[in-house]
Specification:
The structure holds two protein chains of two kinds.
Chain A: E1 6-7, H1 8-14, H2 19-26, H3 28-36, H4 38-44, E2 49-53, E3 56-61, H5 64-75, E4 81-84, E5 92-93
Antiparallel strand pairs in A: 2-3, 2-4
Chain B: E1 3-7, H1 11-14, E2 17-23, H2 26-34, E3 43-49, E4 57-59, H3 62-65, E5 72-77, E6 84-95, E7 99-108, E8 117-119, H4 121-124, E9 128-132, E10 137-141
Parallel strand pairs in B: 3-8, 4-7
Antiparallel strand pairs in B: 1-10, 2-3, 2-6, 4-8, 5-6, 6-7, 9-10
The chains are: A alpha+beta, B mainly beta.
């Protein structure tokens, strides 16, 4: 079997910076639902990973992978939000200058 | 234990860079197959093993080429920005020797870099990284 590989750098040339912003807008309903129910979730699902799709809270799961797999099984290959319920979100850190952000 | 070793001409100058492929995760591959759609080909990229990166990063645009949609949003800090929101994607990482794993990665522009991806501490949390500077090689085992 021959696998045809594409180079990642050529993809970037064709794709404008800021695509992530568009995609985050795609999850606007889900993020709004998470924010509006955060206090409730902190009481019921602390530390768990919640799955939200289309503004609906689907459930809380023990792991990120479990929540993502249920998302794909129930909704298919579409945008959905999986987010851990924590009192304070700690940003990921990137100490080198590789990222153009 | 699955592993791979990479020799680099000048490890200090170039860094621990490995050719990897990014593919759709198994769950998405099953969706493509069950719907009769072709599974997108993996995207090859040079990626740096980066102990300074909390998570793994792929070049902006790669997820779209794989037909993937975001599964999350996370805030990141960089030397020049704080709390920038990035979309997260579930992907399959294919290392040399067909060492394969799945991860949730962020997409970000890697402008002016000699790499198109960063392998961060989320992947390293499942691995052993042996960096042998004086022989210009490194090994990762899972």
């Amino acid at each position: 079997m021959t696998v045809h590989l594409a180079r990642a750098d050529s993809a970037y040339d064709e794709d404008p910076i800021g695509r992530d912003l568009t995609l985050i807008e795609t999850l606007g309903d889900e993020l709004h639902t998470f924010d509006s129910r955060r206090d409730e979730l902190l009481g019921t699902s602390l530390g768990k990973w919640v799955l939200i799709h289309g503004g609906e809270l689907v459930g809380a799961f023990e792991s990120q992978a479990d929540a993502i797999n249920v998302g794909y099984q129930r909704f298919g290959n579409v945008p959905f939000l999986v987010k851990q319920v924590v009192p304070v979100e700690v940003p990921q850190n990137y100490v080198s200058n590789h990222l153009g952000i | 234990m699955p592993s791979f070793t990479v020799a680099v001409p000048n490890l200090q100058a170039i860094g621990p860079i490995v050719e990897i492929r990014i593919a759709v995760p198994a769950a998405v591959e099953a969706i493509f197959v069950s719907s009769g759609q072709p599974v997108p080909s993996p995207v090859a990229m040079a990626a740096m093993i980066d102990t300074g990166a909390s998570g793994t990063v792929i070049q902006a645009g790669v997820a779209a080429r794989l037909g993937l949609h975001p599964v999350g949003v996370v805030a990141i800090n960089t030397p020049s920005s704080t709390r920038v929101l990035c979309a997260q994607y579930a992907v399959r990482l294919i290392f040399p020797n067909n060492v394969v794993g799945e991860a949730v990665v962020i997409e970000a522009p890697l402008e002016g870099q000699h790499v198109q991806g960063l392998v961060g501490r989320d992947v390293l949390s499942q691995a052993v990284l042996v960096y042998i500077g004086y022989t210009n090689q490194f090994t990762m085992s899972f």
